Every structure is written in structure tokens, then in C-alpha cells.
Amino acid sequence: MELLDKLTILADAAKYDVACTSCGVDRKAQKGQLGETTSAGICHAFSADGRCITLLKVLLSNVCSYDCAYCVNRRGNDIPRATFTARELAELTIGFYRRNYIEGLFLSSGVLRNPDYTTEQMCEVIHILRDEYHFRGYIHAKAVPGTSDELLVRLGVLVDRMSLNIEFPSEKSLKLLAPQKAGDAIIKPMGFIRDGIKANYQDKRLSTVRRTRFVPAGQSTQMIVGASPESDYQILNLSASLYRSFELRRVFFSAYIPVNSNPLLPTTSEVPLLREHRLYQADWLMRFYQFDVSEIIDEEHPFLDPLIDPKCNWALNHIDQFPAEVNRVPYEMLLRIPGVGVRSAKRIMLARRERALRFEDLKKLNVTMKRAQYFITCNGSYAQGVLFDPVGIYDKLTHNAQQRRFKGVLEGQLGLFEQEPQRALVRV
Which structural domains are found in the chain, ordered by start? Predict the structure, then answer.
């Protein structure tokens, strides 16, 4: 098979894996070597469906010994198959890098023979890049559940970031839809990678390896949303647990895309992209805005509101804490005002030391006034024309959402909420 044909097949097969952003490591360019990486990550471009495409995102092989119901590369599917040799993929990566097409590599693979054999082949690709071509750019590798600790160490000292897909929010769904995979085979390596990251230079197992840093950019994981019956409440609680237990850099959510016919999978053709978006917003609140899961969602209302973002929903459910006077409230409260981001909150804290802020000042500080105006006062006054009316605020905030171009997607997903009144309206 021609190299271009392999690339076409294996790049297309990798498009469903979204866990490929880069950050968290500094490595400067050196004479005689290729590339560099900064902690801010590489520059990203995005495809029409919102996927990151600046890394060479490719599978080593789409031949797989597993038969996961949801996966396009499952053993039982009749699709074109291809496998790169280690040399082919390494030279392809370097060729793309020299042409300025990419700035790094995201490498995954189907399970060739068994997890250890697959990981050995991935290590060989990266070994050629690092030691023969002296490539110092960003590399993210997807570890295969069930890989031995020795091979995880070998892979971990070659890459910048490693990830293991947890796939589903519950062991029950994993066993049903991916019977060859086991939760323990995913969780155990996550713990091993976490401990290796902590040990890094002190770990004796790495002392004989020239690249002594083990997974310097941390680890991440991915969950499929919409292929199994778990609620947003279950998904977010699992995410919070993974952050606490394994110190993950990121939990990615991937909207289920129906690529196989199987009675175990949802029959709807709708892709839950809006639900994925709301989960990312909630995840952002937990990681950067000091929110606890219980403040975003609860067991009585297990799905996020599709019409309003989680931060606005929280504000409406805690309307007794508003309006907030931006010239007096503490930083922690500024973070909870809809339309105020982390940078905006820090700018407000600095600017109000000099003088009392007005609404026009907030616009200059990049506060999103379309949302914030309903929840704040400046010097004791509301924005011109704004009335503090909780139910009216909900209607105004959701009006634009209902008019957007994804209205058809919204209508398709509101079926989840037919038996559940909107959370904000119930609790205001």
C-alpha cells in the first residue's frame, strides 16, 4: 500500500479521539536538533467541526483485536485497514514538521496482537524521532490499557503527555460496550503514571534513560458522551474524582457519533454536541472558578440545562447573592458572576484599587456585559435599562440560545428534559 493511502486511512481513523491538546512543558530549541515546546502549548488550528488539527493526529494502525461496539475500527467492521512501519511514520512526521504543516504528534493505535506489542511499536516510532532525528517538539501518545509497567516507563520518558481513555462513566457500560476492556486495566496505569510523574528524577527506574523526565506535560483521559445512559451528574462526579485521585491535566468529553449499527447503542442520529459543550463549561468551572460539583448539578436534577450555561444557572439558583457590587465583592465572588472570567476578575481587583469602576470600565476589562449586566451593580446602580427580575433574566439569557443556528440540535436534545422542569426556574 502506498504511504499516502495509509495516511488517508489512519488519519481519518484518528479523528474521533479529541484528547489531543498540548501544554505544560518547556523545551527550548538546541543546535543540531529539531523543534521546541513551550508550556503555553503549540499554536492550534481548528477544523469545521471544532476538532484540533495542528498536531499530526494519526493511528499507528487501525487493525484492532478488540470488538468495541461504538468504535469504527472494531474488529468486526469491514473497513480498509492499514499499518505504518515505525520508520514510515517517523519520517512522515519529520517531513510534515519541516514543511511547517505541524508542530507535534498525537499518536494512538488499534490494539495490534496485544497491548504490549502495540506499545513496543509506538515506542519505536518515538525513539526514531527523538534519538535519530533529535526531534524536540511535542508528542502525545495514547497508552493502551493492559500495557506492562516497564513499557509504560519506556513510553513515558519519550513523550510529553500520555493519556488513557476511560471511555465510559461506569464499569457497567464499559463491560457492555467494550467487553475486552476492564476498568482496572485503565485505572491501574493511571495511578502508575501519576506516581511516575511525581517521582520523575528520583525514580530509579528512569535513571539509566537519557530522557529522565517522565510524562512532563501530565496525563489526560476521555469519556464518550451519549452512547450510554449515565447522566451529567454521574459524568461530572467521575471527572472530579479523576482530577483528585490522579491529578489529571484534563478530562475530555467526546460526543457520541453513531458509526456502527448495534442494538446496544442509541438509535437516534442526533450527535449530542450541545451536551458535550455544557459538560466542558461545567468542567471549566471546577478547574478554574473554584466550583464544586454539588454547586453545579445535583442528583435531583441530573442533567445540565441545555438552554443556559452552568454558571448562569448557578447564579439564578443563588439569586440571593446578587446583585453583586463589583467595587466591593471579594475575588471569589467575582469569579461567580456570569460574564466575568478569571482574567477579568484579576483586572477588576487591580483596577478598583485606583478608582471606583463604572460599567464602561468593565467593558474595557473584557467583562461580557450581555450576561454580567443582570447580576451586578456599579456604585450601587444597575446598568441602564436593566431590571433585577430573576425569571425575566432567565428568559432573556435563553432567548438568543433558542435563535441560534443549532436550534435543531437543541430541539433534538430537549427530549432528555421532558420529565424534568428547568432547574433554574424551579429553584429561583
Answer: 3-296 (3.20.20.70), 310-427 (no CATH)
